[in-house]
Structure formats: structure tokens, C-alpha cells
Amino acid sequence: MNSGILKQRTKRFALDVTEFCMDLKPTLSILAYSKQLIRSSSSVGANYRAACRAKSRADFINKLKIVEEEADESIYFIELIIELEPDSKTKGEMLLKEGNELLAIIVASINTSRKQKG
User: Is the pLDDT of residue 83 over 80?
Assistant: First the structure.
């Protein structure tokens, strides 16, 4: 996938997550999970942009591993929120789909880069 398109998708993911969180009921647990979800989802895009500026293949892989971790964390918090607030399920499932697609793309990029490395 083109890096420009992936930059746009990761940015859109962060914005969509933020909108999702703004529509949730402000219970103590939802507020805590939403805050962490916004951090991790925005970190997906920020760290992907950093990976695009990597100075070496090893640096690129290391930065993509951070993106992988943040995407997986985002998926986890979306799942928690959906379970705590069933009304969020429709929008949450759309975010899960995008989060899982982004995660699969990043993992594939890591694997491809490792093969090219060796």
C-alpha cells in the first residue's frame, strides 16, 4: 500500500476514534478507556509517520513494531468500550474493522521488511 494512503488512513482512524469517544456516556470507566484509546489510536498515525522517516531498515522495522503495538492496544480498548456500552457497538465494530485492517497491513509490512533485510 502507498505510504501516503496509509498516512491518510491512520490519521482518519485517530479522528474517527476521537469522534466515537466524544459520543460515549461519560462514566468513570468509559472516560478512562476513552482517554487511553484516543492516545493509542493517534499514536498509530504519529508513529507510522515517524517510520516513513526512518534512517535505516532496522529503524523502520522498530518504528513499525511500535505502530503494531499501538494498533493492537487501540483494538483492545474499542472492545472494552463496546462491552461496557452496547449502544456503541455499530460504530465500534466499524472502528474494529479498520483497526484490524491497519494492523494486518503493518504486520505484513514488518514481515516484508524483515525478508528484504536478510
Answer: yes
